[in-house]
């Protein structure tokens, strides 16, 4: 035990008001090492006593003057100390690591939406808590007060390297009701927005994501969260994912690694293999304090500040001060620098920030990357997001990741615990552990197992695994694309599929009336029979009132008056290739032809005329109305006909 003198603030160094970390003289550490060796307890805790008052303290540094201790005012008040009083300090081994901490609110703080996050980000200035203490957390705009209601496993617990079970209690029933009301209000607030390119929105950092239909965006999308008047932009980020589970531990893109300033940006490249047509955007606060921000979405050019905004305008009259970088009039440079060199100091680590007199202790530069910031809290956030290893507990092999960014990418994409809708059972389930084979086939672990159930192929009745049905059906498609194109009767009024053995290419029904079992090596006799049949059709007609054949007198559409005109027309028709033959057909074929003509006018039709004709003969058209007949024909085509290339 040593007695030290309380020195409120020496050497201009300042301790935060609300902390339990003290500054001790260096010889205390030397004495400890010589008495106990280098194997000192971690963390190093001391009991500080003054009269009857006592409390536990941690150590910030061993740098005070010999015989003196510097205490945060919280500790000095607890011990009832005035400057120059004596404090007894003794190292202490028996404060256990905490397992449970219950805090009772003294008032409602509606801006704190997640106490766990808030405390994780802000408890680092304390090493111990004792039941009955008041826990003070100082933020730029207010001091939060909570009563330490319960601690486990002892009345005083150490907070370093612990995984605390944290519980926040209301002070009384009235506050409990108020908390329930505000939390349900908060849940109802801020419905998801449908974000649009080139617009800006006011958003809160909370658990609501916003949806961005990214389909029309080219080539890269930039979203920015304008931090505006926030004291500490490091506390806020934008997280983006391609699924609705976007959260602090599940995102693909984020503004975390980007520079922190008046706006935090996230840029999403459409060319990324992870890109999705729908993006889920979540503004978050790492400190647990909710705030409103302006959120802007646009192309990089629209959002990112252009150089000219920041360019310093130098002219003949102005010059840049080599110390602070300010633009000053040439003739006042001497005066300015006279002041500037005495009062302003530029950060020696090259961030460009200029401070009055000295670089404050709170200004930090990360040793592992080129980030920097201005509050201890932002340093903690930076470390925990960028340089703290994390492992995924939802994956069987508990893979570890270099930092939260890598961890969250895993959680948002391939994690065994990530929920997804199974394409076979259509339930929302975790993806499950996947094998190399499952990954190769682009199935989740669950889908690979779920798809092992069997089903009957609707085409060939073969028993197939669900997950193989798609590729099995593709085989049917492939087979189909090699099918020979059907031959359709050359009679323009007929849609029958023929085997095409006669020379005019007519189906058996259309050829029948012109068939004769006579020797006819050069086809002259057949031709004269066809001529005769055509002339009779044009002059006498087929006698059917429903005939729609324009080359038949019965249809009323025939337009050749004299026999001379008729003969000339028939000679012309038969001398050309047979594709203009127009013989009358029966009533059902007439209806089928009308249906084929109707379908062929569909500009989006993916099937050839010959397949439509085959379809119209395969489908039972009797028992349905017109739209039913069309639907039947289309569904036959989808199932049986190869699509046009
Ligand atoms: Zn200057
Ligand atoms: Zn700096
Ligand atoms: Zn860093
Ligand atoms: Zn995982
Ligand atoms: Zn399933
Ligand atoms: Zn099949
Ligand atoms: Zn025919
Ligand atoms: Zn006719």
Given the structure, what is the number of helices?
A: 18
Major sheet summary line: 6 strands, mixed
Rg from C-alpha positions? 42 Å
Major sheet: arrangement of strands: 2-4-3-6-1-5
How many strand elements? 33
Structural class: alpha+beta
Q: Which percent range describes the beta-strand content?
A: 15-25%
CATH architecture of the domain at 2-92: Beta Barrel
What's the quaternary structure here? single chain
Walk me through this protein's architecture.
Keywords: Ubl conjugation pathway. Belongs to the UFD1 family. InterPro entries: AZUL (IPR032353), AZUL_sf (IPR042556), Ufd1-like (IPR004854), Ufd1-like_Nn (IPR042299), UFD1_N1 (IPR055417), UFD1_N2 (IPR055418), Znf_C2H2_type (IPR013087). With 645 residues, the chain is of the alpha+beta class. Among the domains are: 2-92, Barwin-like endoglucanases (Beta Barrel); 100-186, Vcp-like ATPase, Chain A, domain 2 (Roll), CATH 3.10.330; 508-585, no CATH class; 590-640. The protein is built from 18 helices and 33 strands. The protein has a 6-stranded mixed β-sheet with strand order 2-4-3-6-1-5. A 5-stranded mixed β-sheet has the order 13-15-20-17-18, with helices on one face. A 4-stranded mixed β-sheet has the order 9-10-7-12, with helices on one face. α14 packs across α15, α16 (587-600) crosses α17 and α17 (609-618) packs across α18. The relative contact order is 0.06. The model is unreliable at 307-311 (pLDDT under 50).
Task: Summarize the SSE layout with pairings.
Elements: E1 2-6, E2 21-25, H1 26-36, E3 45-50, E4 53-64, E5 68-69, H2 73-78, E6 86-92, E7 100-105, H3 115-122, E8 128-130, E9 134-138, E10 143-152, E11 156-158, E12 165-169, H4 173-188, E13 194-195, E14 200-204, E15 210-213, E16 220-226, E17 236-241, E18 253-254, E19 263-269, E20 278-285, E21 292-299, H5 300-303, H6 307-310, E22 318-320, E23 327-329, H7 333-343, E24 344-346, E25 354-356, E26 364-365, E27 372-373, H8 376-386, E28 390-391, E29 400-401, H9 404-413, E30 419-421, E31 428-430, H10 436-440, H11 445-450, E32 454-456, E33 463-465, H12 466-481, H13 508-511, H14 524-539, H15 563-575, H16 587-600, H17 609-618, H18 626-640
Helix pairs in contact: 14-15, 16-17, 17-18
The structure holds zinc ion (8 copies).
One zinc ion (ZN) binds at residues 541-542, 544, 547, 549, 552, 554-555, 584.
């Amino acid at each position: 035990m040593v007695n030290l003198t309380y020195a409120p603030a020496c050497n201009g160094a300042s301790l935060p008001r609300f902390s339990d970390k003290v500054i001790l003289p260096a010889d205390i550490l030397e004495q400890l090492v010589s008495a106990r060796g280098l194997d000192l307890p971690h963390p190093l805790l001391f009991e500080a006593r003054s009269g009857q008052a006592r409390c536990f303290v941690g150590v910030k540094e061993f740098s005070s003057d010999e015989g003196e201790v510097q205490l945060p005012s919280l500790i000095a008040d607890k011990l009832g100390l005035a400057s120059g009083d004596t404090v007894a300090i003794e190292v202490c081994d028996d404060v256990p690591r905490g397992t449970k901490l219950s805090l009772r609110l003294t008032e409602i703080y509606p801006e704190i939406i997640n106490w766990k996050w808030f405390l994780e980000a802000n408890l680092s200035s304390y090493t111990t808590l004792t039941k009955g203490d008041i826990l003070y957390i100082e933020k730029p705009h207010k001091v939060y007060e909570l009563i330490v209601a319960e601690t486990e496993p002892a009345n005083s617990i150490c907070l370093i390297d612990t995984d605390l079970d944290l519980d926040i209690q209301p002070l009384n029933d009235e506050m409990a009701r108020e908390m329930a009301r505000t939390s349900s209000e908060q849940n109802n607030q801020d419905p998801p927005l449908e974000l649009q390119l080139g617009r800006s929105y006011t958003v809160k950092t909370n658990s609501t994501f916003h949806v961005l239909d990214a389909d029309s965006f080219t080539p890269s999308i930039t979203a920015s969260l304008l931090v505006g008047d926030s004291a500490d932009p490091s506390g806020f980020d934008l997280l983006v994912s391609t699924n609705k589970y976007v959260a602090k531990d599940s995102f693909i893109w984020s503004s975390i690694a980007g520079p922190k300033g008046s706006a935090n940006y996230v840029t999403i490249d459409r060319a990324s293999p992870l890109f999705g047509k729908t993006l889920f955007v979540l503004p978050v606060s790492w400190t647990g304090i909710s705030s409103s921000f302006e959120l802007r979405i646009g192309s990089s050019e629209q959002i990112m500040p252009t150089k000219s905004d920041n360019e310093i305008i130098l002219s003949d009259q102005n010059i840049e001060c080599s110390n602070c970088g300010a633009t000053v009039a040439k003739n006042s440079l001497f005066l300015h620098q006279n002041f500037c060199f005495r009062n302003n100091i530029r950060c020696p680590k090259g961030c460009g920030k200029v401070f009055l007199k000295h670089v404050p202790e709170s200004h930090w530069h990360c040793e592992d990357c080129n980030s920097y910031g201005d509050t201890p809290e932002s340093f903690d956030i930076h470390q925990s997001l960028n340089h703290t290893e994390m492992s995924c507990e939802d994956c069987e092999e508990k893979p570890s990741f270099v930092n939260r960014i890598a961890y969250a990418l895993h959680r948002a994409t391939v994690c065994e615990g990530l929920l997804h809708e199974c394409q076979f059972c259509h339930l929302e389930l975790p993806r499950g552990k996947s094998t190399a084979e499952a990954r190769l086939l682009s199935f989740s672990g669950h889908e690979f197992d779920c798809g092992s159930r069997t089903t009957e192929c609707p085409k060939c009745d073969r028993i197939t695994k669900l997950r193989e049905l798609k590729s099995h059906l593709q085989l049917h498609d492939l087979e189909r694309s090699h099918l020979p194109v059907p031959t359709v009767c050359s009679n323009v009024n007929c849609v029958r599929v023929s085997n095409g053995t006669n020379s005019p290419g007519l189906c058996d029904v259309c050829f029948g009336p012109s068939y004769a079992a006579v020797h006819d090596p050069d086809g002259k006799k057949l031709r004269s029979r066809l001529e005769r049949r055509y002339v009779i059709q044009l002059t006498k007609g087929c006698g059917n009132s429903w005939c729609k054949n324009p080359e038949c007198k019965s249809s009323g559409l025939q337009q050749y008056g004299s026999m001379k005109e008729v003969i000339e027309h028939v000679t012309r028709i038969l001398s050309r290739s047979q594709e203009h033959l127009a013989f009358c057909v029966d009533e059902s074929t007439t209806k089928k032809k009308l249906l084929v003509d109707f379908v062929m006018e569909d500009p989006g039709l993916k099937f050839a005329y010959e397949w439509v004709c085959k379809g119209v003969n395969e489908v039972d058209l009797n028992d349905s109305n017109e739209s039913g007949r069309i639907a039947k024909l289309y569904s036959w085509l989808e199932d049986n006909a190869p699509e046009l290339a």
